[in-house]
Structures are given as structure tokens and as C-alpha cells.
Predict the structure.
Amino acid sequence: MTSKTRREFTEEFKREAVLLLQSSGRPLMQVAKEFGIHPSMLRNWRVRGHGPTGPTAGTAGPSRILLPASPEQAEIRRLQKELERAQMERDIPKKSHRHLLGPAEMRFRFIEDHRQMFLVRVMCSVLEVSASGYYAWRHRPESTRSQANRALLGDIRRVHAKSRRRYGSPRVHAALQAEGQRVGRNRVARLMRRHGIAVRSKRRFRVTTDSKHGFPVAPNLLNRKFTAPGPNKVWLADMTYIPTGEGWLYLAVVLDLFSRKVVGWAMRETMAQELTLSALQMAITNRQPGPGLLQHSDRGSQYAAHDYRRLLAKHGMLCSMSRKGNCWDNAPMESFFGSLKTELEEDGPFLTRQDARSTLFSFLEAFYNRTRLHSAIGYKTPADMEQLAAAA
């Protein structure tokens, strides 16, 4: 393995680092991590007097003569070292939990990746490998397979980062294949697991359903048949709300079941009926569907209201509604809002409604419709599915 280039630090850098350490009152390890230097290096700079009165402070002159430390100072330094080691022994398992039960090579890789953050000897002790074994591994010529894995890992990290950590191994694998890379799905999953590359957890997004109303309720015609023979055969509709510093922002969405494309949406400051009507009208205007389209939603008042039902009937659409209290009758919309929740956790909290609007617009039109690979449609994007249908 090729050793990393040794970093060089100027006296000014050392002096400023020690000055920050002394003035901030923060732990040595935290300051070292912030500057990307080894804790022992910063500790040595401090001991050698690279502070505000250190060798290069002020005008040129002889370096400061270091006097022997008093017993109290020596005890303080000893306690500081013990504390730093205890902090490392506490923090290393948090970062290396995926490596603790792995093979020695995996643990050596963790040590290599974190040697600027923790002492090598402490990591070796915590991970139960020998320092001599690590250094032998570090200077061993890298195998062809290892080089290929390292290159593939870089591509995996790139795809995963581009998805903003939304992709698990199946979608990462599909994205790499779309780029022309011939690589096994299990190999991608193994490398992601080994290096702790995981999808951000999803939590069900909170939706708004007011089913206590006097409007007539439609039967569940969809009945969990979550496939469609082509575009504009089945649409799904739902709504939710997003907190901002100015109050709620309400979002209504219409989704084409065949391609999973968002075909209509609307954002408003209130949950008035105009919200869902606007989303449906956008979908109708953009798609111009023929008669017989099935539109499925929950049984909330916004979807059961007379104006909404009249708009459906005007365009020859059939109305279908979920059973009471059964969100899984509209499961694809649940999946959609799960992806949306993940997006908002990354970019929120939002100070203004406009901040939320901008993020939602980018998510709906740029990422979800044109970039995100969907497992339900064979790891294609909604835009790809629409093009395939148009060419058929």
C-alpha cells in the first residue's frame, strides 16, 4: 500500500493551533479533529511551547527555554493524557461498530481511515489487532482486487452522495449499471456494508385526513392493485403539511401509478379545498387524460367534497377511496411521502414557507421525477418510464 504524503505545518500554523486550544477551552481531540491533525501532534506542539509566547512569537530572538515542569504540571499533563485516551476508547467503538466483528483487514482499513483522529495504538487495542500487523498491512503492496474495490468504493460514495444518501445498495447498483459499469449487486452491497454506507432511515410522513364529514364516500375500486397498464390509467392523490418558522405549508400531490411520476401538485398556506383542486387541475392540464381514469385518494373532506367530485366527473374520471383509517390502501403515496420526509430532514428546518417551497419544488421536479430510481418500476426514473411508454 502506498503511504500518504506527509503534511508539513508552518510555525505560524502551529502557533495558531495551540493558541486556539488554549483560548477556547475545548478538548484537545476536538481541536485536532477540526484542523485535521493528529492529537499527539497538537499535544507535542503545546508541550514545546508553540503558543503565544512560543519560538516564533514577537520579534526574532532566541527560542524560549523550557523549564522543567513542576510536579503539579506533570500531574495535570498525566491526567490530560488519561482523559484523552478515555475519550478515544469511548469514541472509537461508536465509529467502528461495523468493523469490530469484521476480518482483520477491515479493522486495519478503519485504523488507516481514522489515524488522523485517534492514536493508532489505542485503535489497535480497542479493535483487538496488533500494531505490528497494522503497519505490515499498511506497507504491503496493494492487490489488483483491492485496487478495483477502492475504485468501485469511490464510485459508490459518489452515487450515494449524489442521491443525498437516499439510495441503498440496490439503487446504487442500478445507477452504476446505468453508467455502464459491470459489477455484481452483492459486491456493491458488501462494500457499502463494510464501509458503513447506508440509506437514511425513513419515517412515515404525517398526513392530514379529515374523515368526519357529511360528504358521500366512494368505494375502494383500486383495492390495492398497485399496477397500471400505462400512463393516465390510475392516479393517486394525497396531501400533507410541512412546518416552517412562519407556520404550516400544505402540499397536495397527484401521482401517476404507472410511472410513479408526480403529475400534479399545489402548495398553500391553508388546507382549504382549493389546495387539492389546484393539484388535480394541474394534472389534468398537463396530461389531458381520456375518460375512464381511476383516481384514488383517502376519504378526507378535501377529496370527498362536491367541487372535487364534480371536477373528476367533468373529465370522465372514476373516484376511488381508501377504507377508513387504512393508509396502506394508498401505499405508493405512503412511499412517496417517506421519500419526501427524508428530504425535509436533510434540508430543514425551514425558516420561511418560501424556503420549504423551493426545496419541495426541487425535490418534486428535479429529483423525484427525473433522477430517483424507483424499485417498483425496475429501477428506472419516472421520466424514463414515460419515454418508454411513448415509444411503445
Notes: The chain has three domains: 11-138, 144-194, 234-391.
